[in-house]
Please model this.
Amino acid sequence: MNDVGLIGVGEAGARFMDWLMEAGYDVTCYDRGHQIAYAEERGATIVSTRSEVAERTDAIVLSVTGTSNVETIMEGDDGLLRATEPGQVLMDTSTINASAAVKYQRECAEAGIHWVSAPWTSNSPASELIMFPAGDDESLEAAEDLIEACSTLHYRFEDVEETMVFKYLMQIRYAAHVAIDAEIVEIANAADVDAEPLNSVLEMGIDEALFTGEYAQKGEGLSALDSWDKDLGYAVEYGHGADADQDGIAMPLTSMVHEVYKHGNRVADPDERNAAAIARYWQALNRG
Model:
């Protein structure tokens, strides 16, 4: 495998592209946004259709923002389901609806295409890009070099639904943790109490942005605030529909945090990068 396609050259996609090129792959990129200029500057081959990516490569990495984007890429006359040949690898690094991941794994298997769902995180204390690939054994083996190239650490799951649910668990924990820290700091501000010793003395690790108010986005792509809103929505949707024979999974805290993030999106500035901008929600409540 020498030729790899990349669909989506946002902040994460650009990182994947750099690592793939450093690993010796020839990379062909497709993106409808202006970020494609970065890929061109780095020497990647640029194409104007998704089917051209499939025609030129042995494997394709998808790095887009959610279920609707993956559906657009996979479906239609120019979609990868039609354009990809048996034996090619599709590795989707997006966090999407678990049912969509299962659907595309099944449809790819029927067409002889290797599908790997590989959501990732760089928010863990390990400060690494950790990937969670899942798929059948043959597909994981076919994608092994890609997984190694696109992550600093990885942990495999047995099936694509499991890895998506695990990603939801991470996002619930991250988002709820930041949300409660934002409320703590805002209470301290409203009461004119210095909350900084929570970090300096108690080592609680509260995001410094909550103290400084500096939330400017560092790079291109979906902001963390948007991303966590989206992923919490997937988590709640999955939980409520987890078992058609029952009432689903009770998720009252996650549902509440999701609502807070949705409202936070309405008051945060468009260029704010960090989910710590959820503090804007509490500021709006307390300061008007």
